[in-house]
Write a structure and sequence with these properties.
10 strands; disordered N terminus; alpha/beta; 6-stranded parallel sheet; Carbamate kinase; 4-stranded antiparallel sheet; 2 domains; GTP Cyclohydrolase I, domain 2; about 300 residues; elongated; about 35% helix
Length: about 300
């Protein structure tokens, strides 16, 4: 019993050795520090903090001699690249999510068998806050062998006039007949939003105004599901569900430049379409939008082009 606290806080290398099922090769990355914007608290948004990574990977024995050839080994770059790719994909709230993504990427290497990932925040106080996970290749917590890719969507801007029109249900029928997953975007309603002197506070207010209107649209037709993340979009696309974009999470968590003018429907549609790799862009509106096929508010939408 006296050894349990010591073992719990041992290095990933020591923990790997203590729980090994047999002799295995290992590669490790120690005390790798990166400035990261991560965290669920408001104080952690818009600022970076130092995050330290320690990773140990157990490897199956090579089938042939490595002959001092770097192309025949699992390189240390595999570990740093997995960290960089996970950080670049999206802004994350949880270290647990980041650790899972790193583990999945590294375990995609054919020789990787087991991984220990420890991640710690260094700047949250006179201590370290961290998480450690262990994942195995092919185990209950390992990789899903085959991932079914979501079909690429069409992104459709729905104006307030289109949303309020009694023909909206029929227009949605016509859009769904394209056989492409649909992501609908909306603008804020005509009701003036509250105003704040703080730039970030106002940005959140403006995003919430758009989200309120997304729920209004969902209330118009029960085929429309409000979602706020790429994961939800992709799941909906696989199941044929039409979605309405609630933009706050994706815009605030964006790693790449986010739309700066939330009141510009074309900019919002274009950003989402690029982010989701959309195959088509439409504007169901009484006014055209640059970069989108204009669908005027008439009974039969011109969807043939």
């Amino acid at each position: 019993m006296d050894r349990e606290p010591t073992s719990a806080f041992a290095s990933p290398e020591e923990r790997a050795a203590a729980t090994a099922r047999g002799p295995r090769d290992r590669i490790s990355l120690r005390d790798y520090i990166v400035d990261v914007e991560i965290g669920a608290f408001q104080a952690e948004r818009g600022a970076t903090q130092r995050v330290q990574f320690n990773v140990v990977v157990e490897l199956a024995h090579a089938d042939e001699p490595i002959d001092d050839d770097v192309d025949r080994i699992v390189s240390y770059d595999t570990l740093t690249d997995a960290i960089a790719a996970s950080l670049a994909e999206e802004r994350l709230n949880l270290l647990e999510t980041l650790a899972e993504q790193i583990a999945r990427r590294v375990l995609s290497e054919p020789r990787a068998r087991r991984i220990f990932v420890r991640i710690e925040k260094l700047d949250r106080g006179p201590f370290r806050l961290g998480v450690e996970i262990m994942r195995e290749q092919g185990g209950a917590e390992g990789l899903t062998p085959v991932e079914v890719l979501a079909p690429p969507p069409a992104v459709v801007f729905v104006s307030n006039a289109a949303m309020a029109d009694a023909r909206f249900g029929g227009w949605l029928d016509q859009l769904e007949s394209l056989g492409i997953p649909l992501i609908l975007t909306v603008e804020a309603s005509g009701i003036a939003a509250p105003q704040s002197a703080g730039r970030m506070a106002q940005r959140r207010i403006d995003l919430l105004a758009i989200e309120q209107n997304a729920w209004v649209l969902a209330g118009r037709d029960d085929r429309c599901l409000v979602v706020d993340s790429r994961t939800e979009f992709e799941y909906a696309a696989k199941t044929g569900q039409t979605t309405v974009w609630a933009p706050s999470k994706m815009v605030l968590d964006a790693v790449e430049p986010a739309p700066h003018d939330l009141g510009d429907p074309g900019q919002m549609l274009g950003w989402l379409a690029t982010h989701m790799e959309a195959v088509a862009r439409y504007a169901l509106s009484d006014q055209a939008i640059d970069g989108a096929v204009h669908l005027p508010l008439v009974d039969d939408l011109p969807l043939g082009g």
